[in-house]
Amino acid sequence: MLKFILKYYLPINLLFDVFTSTLWQSGSNAATIRGGFLILILFSAWMKNRHHDVYRPFIFYTLYITLLLFYATDFIESLRLSTKVLTTIWAFPIFFVYGYLYSDKVIKRNIFWMSIILIGNYAISTIYGIGHAEYSDSNEFLVGSLSDSWLIFTYTLFLYIIILKTKNLRLSTKTIYLIMFAMLVVLILLGMKRTAIIVFFVGIIIFLFLEKLNFKSILTFAMGFIFILIILNQYSDVLENQFYARGDRVQGKARDIIESEYRYFESIYVWEKVFSFKNAWESIFGLEAYNSRNNYGPYSVFGDRYLHIDYNIIVNTTGLFGLFFYFYLFYYIYKRFKERKYFLDYKYHELFLVIFLTQFLASIGGQMLSVTYGSIKFAFMAVALNKFTNQSK
């Protein structure tokens, strides 16, 4: 049972996200049950094979965050937020150890089911009016509880590198995946979220830089592009409405421009506070364990607002030492990649680098508290490092 859940850990997480605010309310006991379930799964997986050295830096990081909890002004809130972050980060060592479960067949199933869930969620939400439109009062484009989770779409799209590069895939099967890929791209474009769109295209650029183009791959790219154009043509009115609604926000006619200013000002207040060293312990260790609320800037300006930029959250709540430690985890992950890169199946080599590099950019837009997005990036970086040339078929 544990192995089955680990195989489909990501689609299960995504279903939890989709059902939030639909089958159950956001912030209800269901969120606590979900957190407990994920911790139980990860802990059980760790206990079954806890002597692997890959766990070491993640154990130390967890201990550091746990120590900070005892200094937090709001223990329960810090515990809630820290659990989200640690759950996503622990996806790397767990899936590094259990990467053998992810055959190409299992990976394709994960991509298929996550795509179906995302597309189905859009269709059902729009038909039944679930959720709210981000930039307009129209109900012609809704994605339910995923209206602020667009990086899930982006990083699901990155997994299509595996589909694109898998040999001996039947044309009918590849065509189905290309249609789903095109639909997800269109959904991202309709969503009009700058971070998700920019990260996606940066990922494409990195992939093309790494890719050894041949006639077959060029043909696949062309087919994918054609599908995108065909679907976009069907949604031209929706795209136009979303574009103009988003344009109104950019011109300052609604709250989006205010939120952009908040992100700018939050950075000034956060880094000024850290480097002032007025409270050296706070500058070095943060002492709030991921709870940034009321921990930066004047309340009259920011109120109960949480920080949005990941790096601001980390340095504000775990200090300069916590920020260094967080980056060290990625240094450690990259070291693991360097040990194996010459032995990896090249498509997984590409997937690892696309995820690894783009996530630094994605962190500027935030979302480190999104368990599903974080789990996708950490889990598939780990899975990629277990796919050697002679193992992948």
Per-chain topology:
Blueprint: H1 2-7, H2 9-19, H3 29-48, H4 56-69, H5 75-89, H6 91-97, H7 104-128, H8 150-158, H9 160-165, H10 171-191, H11 194-210, H12 215-234, H13 236-250, H14 255-276, H15 280-285, H16 299-302, H17 310-340, H18 346-365, H19 371-384
Helix pairs in contact: 2-7, 2-19, 4-5, 4-17, 5-19, 6-19, 7-10, 8-10, 8-11, 8-19, 10-12, 11-18, 14-17, 17-18, 18-19
What's a quick, concise take on this entry?
The chain has 393 residues and is an all-alpha fold. The protein has one domain. 72% of the residues lie in helices and 0% in strands.
How would you describe this structure to a colleague?
The chain has helices spanning 2-7, 9-19, 29-48, 56-69, 75-89, 91-97, 104-128, 150-158, 160-165, 171-191, 194-210, 215-234, 236-250, 255-276, 280-285, 299-302, 310-340, 346-365, 371-384. With 393 residues, the chain is mostly helical.
Approximate helicity band: over 70%
Give me the count of strands: 0
Which range does the strand content fall in? under 5%
Q: What order do the SSEs take from the amino end to the carboxyl end, as H and E?
A: HHHHHHHHHHHHHHHHHHH
Shape: globular
Rg value: 21 Å
Counting helices, strands and paired strands, the structural category is mainly alpha
How far do the termini sit from each other?
25 Å
Low-confidence stretches: none
Number of separate helices: 19
Main beta-sheet annotation: none
Q: How many domains is the backbone divided into?
A: 1
Give average pLDDT, whole number: 87
